[in-house]
């Protein structure tokens, strides 16, 4: 009887939700559970999985030098990429907040890189721009400076991808711009009366009131950066080169799973990545108590 009452009251709603629920179970929950099982096995996609326990996790931290290098490359990319992207996004948001003529047009133009920045086409274009005969070297040649084949040089290859990440500043810029418009002008007037110049107004008024927006953008861009794949795959032709300088964690995971057919090992890497993202996200939330200021 209780089930009949529940179904009579909520059945129509669950009926409309059923396509989403079926998709959630079929394409999300079941694969997650199965990948957890595979992470404890030796599985090559063609034969039955063989249980190996914690061997995959132990080997990746003790025997796999490329795994450690992929972590290093990814951490550098996440730290500098997110930092530069948010700084550039905030700078552009402040400029656009000055009431420029044609603001909507500028806002749309600056947002476009965020729509296409992670695409294969942009990654191919980026490889050409930073190639030996690319656009960057042509500009440097005008000033008599000899350029490099930036993407083929292990000292610079990763930084070209960090620049690409920075170029995708559109989404956080729009969010910063919305946050700036919510700051009351009276606060800036009061700061001016107290003798604060533009720089002090930025530090004492703008930044504290924007900290919730900064925190949100930081979390979202950090999670997105840890999962970056397309740019490194296209620019390095799937190798992570030169000398593994662009071997992102996700790219190495792809190599292990779909090139070396070590799907069990790749599954364990995926779960380690989940733990890493969860750890840094939790760390960010804990630190937020010290520097993020919400309105009371």
Q: How would you characterize this protein structure?
A:
- This protein has 296 residues and is mostly helical.
- The protein has a single domain (55-291), classed as MetI-like fold (Orthogonal Bundle).
- It has 13 helices and two strands.
- The protein has a two-stranded antiparallel ribbon.
- A hairpin with a 7-residue loop joins strand 1 and strand 2 (50-51).
- Helix 12 (249-259) packs antiparallel against helix 13 (263-291).
- The model has no long low-confidence stretch (mean pLDDT 88).
Please tell me how large the radius of gyration is.
Answer: 24 Å
DSSP strand content: under 5%
Approximate helicity band: over 70%
Which regions have little confidence, pLDDT < 50, spanning 5+ residues? none
Describe the oligomeric state of these chains in a short phrase.
single chain
> Strand order, biggest sheet?
1-2
Total count of domains: 1
State the fourth-level CATH superfamily: MetI-like
Could you name the key traits of this structure?
MetI-like fold; two-stranded antiparallel sheet; 296 residues; mainly alpha; 1% strand
